[in-house]
């Protein structure tokens, strides 16, 4: 209600003032995602900006699309600024090394996990002998996982080992049913198949709980309560702002973010945390999942829960180039965990985008470009030896090493790695899957 002395104002002036007020209210709402209330300052402003400003930027990143016009890939420094996260710098890496007493994983040394939220708080707590837990996940959209899907799991396994903490892995079969052309039964089946690949990464069965949403949501005494709490504190307008939902998206999609948020709260797993509500959570994930957790972090204090901390990775580039990420739906863009040594060789030789020159003479003269060369990029993910990687870089850049030779190194790196994965996956029995997926106490006292 407007209450001021209208005696000295014309009708036009009053109408203009009302229009102005309404447009300010609207602006307030689109910026903050909250309805304007007189006298109440906005809560957490960071939430709404998904960083998808259209004017300046070529890069587009959300949970469904990663696109850039730059052959070097997404500009991750810009993404940090836009998303409002923090860079994983040398100081933080050194601190992780001091806290764990372990050489930092190559994903940290090489900036593959490059961004974080509140990792210093996790380390503060850890140094004071306070435990935390890890949470990561996977949307089981098909049976076929590719090497890019392994990145968060390889890193999570390392974190579990060096910090010795519990891990929960969410398989969002519900999400894939909602988003893809899949039956419930199929996506549930994919969840179990994918669980085998995840288990094959070497997680400790006594410290890891893997769950399918379709299974666990209905049986847990804590999970659904957290979903409803999150749902109560996020408006339709906010999820539209964060995820780009429209009025014609089904309501399952619109409420799904609450389901991905809930495992960030320890009370979703009473059997693991003995009903405790305040155990801190650390989420390793690819940066495209950040919108879910920006939302989660905004809600957390309002439902009396600690905000989850995050470690963000870059995307795993498609064979065709770093303009987009590897996609399981395009067989030629990916190297699958089921590929034979021969398929790996052919795919890399045929499809891996090269930063080399057109002719041998030119290559020798001008050298290759590691910044856009997909084979080199893959080696930074998978070749453990830092010195060897540096030698390859110099030799390729100087023109001494040819594209075919670089590709050969990659092929010889990936073939044994994938063969070993296949071997470990074969050892994963249905009985083991069942055990990993049974809600139970883990080897930790809370
Ligand atoms: N939405 C993710 C996907 O489509 C799956 C997921 C659920 C996830 N919870 C997560 C990923 C937590 C990382 C961290 O793959």
UniProtKB/TrEMBL annotation:
CDD domains according to UniProt: TrpRS_core
Domain of life, source organism: Eukaryota
InterPro entries: aa-tRNA-synth_I_CS, aa-tRNA-synth_Ic, Rossmann-like_a/b/a_fold, Trp-tRNA-ligase
One of the GO BP terms on file: tryptophanyl-tRNA aminoacylation
Single GO cellular component term: cytoplasm
Keywords from the named record: Aminoacyl-tRNA synthetase, ATP-binding, Ligase, Nucleotide-binding, Protein biosynthesis
SUPFAM superfamilies: Nucleotidylyl transferase
A GO molecular-function annotation: ATP binding
Record-listed E.C. numbers: 6.1.1.2
Protein's UniProt keywords contain Aminoacyl-tRNA synthetase: yes
Pfam families in the cross-refs: tRNA-synt_1b
Entry keyword Protein transport: no
PROSITE patterns hit by this protein: AA_TRNA_LIGASE_I (PS00178)
PANTHER family, per database record: TRYPTOPHAN--TRNA LIGASE, CYTOPLASMIC, TRYPTOPHANYL-TRNA SYNTHETASE
Family, similarity comment: Belongs to the class-I aminoacyl-tRNA synthetase family.
Designated name of the protein: Tryptophan--tRNA ligase, cytoplasmic
Organism: Strix occidentalis caurina (northern spotted owl)
């Amino acid at each position: 209600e407007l209450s001021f002395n209208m005696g000295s104002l014309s009708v036009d002036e009053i109408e203009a003032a009302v229009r102005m007020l309404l447009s300010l209210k609207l602006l307030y709402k689109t910026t903050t995602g909250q309805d304007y209330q007189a006298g109440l300052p906005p809560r957490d402003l960071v939430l709404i900006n998904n960083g998808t400003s259209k004017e300046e930027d070529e890069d587009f990143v959300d949970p469904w699309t990663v696109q850039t016009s730059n052959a070097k890939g997404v500009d991750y420094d810009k993404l940090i600024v836009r998303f409002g996260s923090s860079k994983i710098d040398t100081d933080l890496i050194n601190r992780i090394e001091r806290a764990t007493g372990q050489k930092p994983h190559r994903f940290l040394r090489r900036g593959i996990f490059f961004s974080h939220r509140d990792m210093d708080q996790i380390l503060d707590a850890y140094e004071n002998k306070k435990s935390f837990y890890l949470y990561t996940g996977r949307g089981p959209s098909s049976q076929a996982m590719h090497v890019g899907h392994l990145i968060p799991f390889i890193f999570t396994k390392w974190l579990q080992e060096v910090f010795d903490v519990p891990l929960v892995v969410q398989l969002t079969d519900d999400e894939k049913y909602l988003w893809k052309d899949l039956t419930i039964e199929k996506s549930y089946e994919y969840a179990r198949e994918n669980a085998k690949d995840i288990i094959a990464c070497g997680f400790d069965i006594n410290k890891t709980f893997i769950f399918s949403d379709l299974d666990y949501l209905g049986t847990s005494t804590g999970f659904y309560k957290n979903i409803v709490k999150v749902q109560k504190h996020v408006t339709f307008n906010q999820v539209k702002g964060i995820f780009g939902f429209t009025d014609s998206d089904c309501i399952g999609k619109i409420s799904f973010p609450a389901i991905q948020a809930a495992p960030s709260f320890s009370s979703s797993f009473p059997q693991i945390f003995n009903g405790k509500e305040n155990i801190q959570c650390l989420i390793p994930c690819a940066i495209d999942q950040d919108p879910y957790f920006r939302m989660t972090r905004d809600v957390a204090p309002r439902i009396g829960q600690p905000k989850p901390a995050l470690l963000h990775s870059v995307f795993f580039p498609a064979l065709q180039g770093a303009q987009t990420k590897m996609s399981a739906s395009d067989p030629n863009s990916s190297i699958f965990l089921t590929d034979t040594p021969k398929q790996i060789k052919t795919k890399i030789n045929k499809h891996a985008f090269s930063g080399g020159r057109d002719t041998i003479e030119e290559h020798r003269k001008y050298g290759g470009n590691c910044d856009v060369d997909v084979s080199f990029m893959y080696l930074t993910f998978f070749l453990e030896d830092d010195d060897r990687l540096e030698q390859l870089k110099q030799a390729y850049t100087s023109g001494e090493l040819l594209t075919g030779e670089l590709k050969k190194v990659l092929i010889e790196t990936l073939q044994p790695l994938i063969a070993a994965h296949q071997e470990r996956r074969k050892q994963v029995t249905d009985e083991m899957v069942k055990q990993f997926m049974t809600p139970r106490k883990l080897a930790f006292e809370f």
